[in-house]
């Protein structure tokens, strides 16, 4: 059984930083794409970033490029998202999602960017 558990997030002022982590089990790490997806209040899902193949392929949405870094720790089976220069529009629930077809989802972590 694949398990996906996120941690981190919380409340931060605009311009601040937060880190999200995702611990996985039952999933062959780096065998497929690993992703972060977010959902702002009252809005639909928005893809944020993906990594595939031992960090050899990384993609970011234009809305976060240059401010957010995705990374993996193969020894710990973790997927992290370091978020800097956060803006109010980054507010939302962030989901760790595994698989090329977004097969496995965590429960999400709330990130609130507000003064």
Plain-language structure description:
Strands 2, 4, 5, 6, 9, 10 and 11 form a seven-stranded mixed β-sheet that branches. Strands 1-3-8-7 form a four-stranded antiparallel β-sheet, with no helix packed on it. Helices cover 0% and strands 53% of the residues. It has strands spanning 3-8, 10-12, 18-25, 34-39, 45-52, 57-60, 68-73, 78-83, 92-98, 104-105, 109-113. The radius of gyration is 13 Å and the shape is globular. The model has no long low-confidence stretch (mean pLDDT 94). The chain is mainly beta. Strand 4 (34-39) and strand 5 form a beta hairpin.
Write the layout of secondary structure elements.
Elements: E1 3-8, E2 10-12, E3 18-25, E4 34-39, E5 45-52, E6 57-60, E7 68-73, E8 78-83, E9 92-98, E10 104-105, E11 109-113
Summarize the structure.
The protein is mainly beta and 115 residues long. The chain has strands at 3-8, 10-12, 18-25, 34-39, 45-52, 57-60, 68-73, 78-83, 92-98, 104-105, 109-113.
Attribute tags:
single chain; 115 residues; 0% helix; 53% strand; four-stranded antiparallel beta sheet; globular; mainly beta
User: Treating each run of at least 4 consecutive H or I residues as one helix, how many helices?
Assistant: 0
Helix/strand structural class = mainly beta
- Roughly how many Å apart are the termini? 40 Å
Low-confidence sequence ranges: none
Tally of DSSP β-strands: 11
Average pLDDT, to the nearest integer? 94
Strand count, sense and closure of the main sheet? 7 strands, mixed
Rg value = 13 Å
Shape: globular
Please bin the fraction of helical residues. Answer: under 10%
Q: What is the H-and-E element order?
A: EEEEEEEEEEE
Strand content: over 45%
């Amino acid at each position: 059984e694949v398990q996906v558990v996120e941690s981190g997030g919380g409340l931060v002022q605009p311009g601040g930083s937060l880190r999200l982590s995702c611990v996985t089990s039952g999933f062959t790490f780096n065998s497929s794409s690993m992703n972060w997806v977010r959902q702002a209040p009252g809005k639909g899902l928005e893809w944020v970033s993906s990594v595939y193949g031992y960090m050899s392929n990384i993609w970011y949405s234009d809305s976060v490029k240059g401010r957010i870094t995705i990374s993996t720790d193969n020894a710990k089976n973790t997927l992290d998202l370091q978020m800097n220069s956060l803006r109010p529009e980054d507010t939302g629930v962030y989901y760790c999602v595994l698989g090329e077809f977004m097969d496995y989802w965590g429960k999400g972590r709330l990130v609130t960017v507000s003064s």
